[in-house]
Design brief:
heterodimer; A: about 110 residues; mainly beta; six-stranded mixed β-sheet; five-stranded antiparallel β-sheet; 11 strands; B: mainly beta; globular
């Protein structure tokens, strides 16, 4: 089955600096890669996703890149703010129609230092 | 509804007790997933329904775990004879494959503590 690895497990950055979180996956059939943000005690919320037909997607301060050949994808957050502090999970799925399970990474605890 | 609703939010069970966790998906969402999230870990897949059909239950850790969605909307995850290792947050997610660029919407989860 699919295996998703995520690094680093913790990340501290100065407010205003950039943060990068990296994930690798094992199953070449995976074609949908969402990123979720989870604040303490709250539900995971989708912040950005990418499908295998594109290599990069950007939404304001957040961007995701995908390298299907190398089977890795990354989350980039620029101009970080205190409210970006949370745990971030990457995930992979074989379908972008919401009818296949997500395999999650182990999470990255991001702390923004004011 | 406005979002995925789960109840109860918190459940404390004595070891050996049976528990039932409820998920109300977003109205009209065909796909429903259950995930288990242990402390400090990512969610792990348990089972998947498409309408009332349970199409994938490969993630259920033992035969003590049972899920149903009899009318294709509300789903219940039942755990029999709970063990301490069952302590986790149980997340439900729903999605609608008919929607272009669909996403999975998560509920807030049920935190189960087995004592």
């Amino acid at each position: 089955g699919e295996n998703v690895e995520q690094h680093p497990s913790t990340l501290s950055v100065q407010e205003g600096d950039s943060a990068v979180i990296k994930c690798t996956y094992s199953d070449s059939a995976s074609n949908y890669f969402p990123w979720y943000k989870q604040e303490l005690g709250k539900r995971p919320q989708l912040i950005i996703d990418i499908r295998s037909n594109v290599g990069e997607k950007k939404d304001q301060r957040i961007a995701v890149t995908l390298n299907k050949t190398a089977k890795h994808f990354s989350l980039h957050i620029t101009e970080t703010q205190p409210e970006d502090s949370a745990v971030y999970f990457c995930a992979a799925s074989k379908s972008n129609f919401g009818n296949e399970k997500l395999t999650f990474g182990t999470g990255t605890r991001l702390t923004i230092i004011p | 509804g406005a979002g995925v609703s789960q109840s109860p939010r918190y459940k404390v069970a004595k070891r050996g007790q049976d528990v039932a966790l409820r998920c109300d998906p977003i109205s009209g969402h065909v796909s429903l997933f259950w995930y288990q999230q242990a402390l400090g870990q990512g969610p792990e897949f348990l089972t998947y329904f498409q309408n009332e059909a349970q199409l994938d239950k490969s993630g259920l850790p033992s035969d003590r775990f049972f899920a149903e969605r009899p009318e294709g909307s509300v789903s219940t995850l039942k755990i029999q004879r709970t063990q301490q290792e069952d302590s986790a947050v149980y997340l439900c997610a729903s999605s609608s494959p008919e929607v272009v660029n669909t996403e999975a919407f998560f509920g807030q989860g049920t935190r189960l503590t087995v004592v």
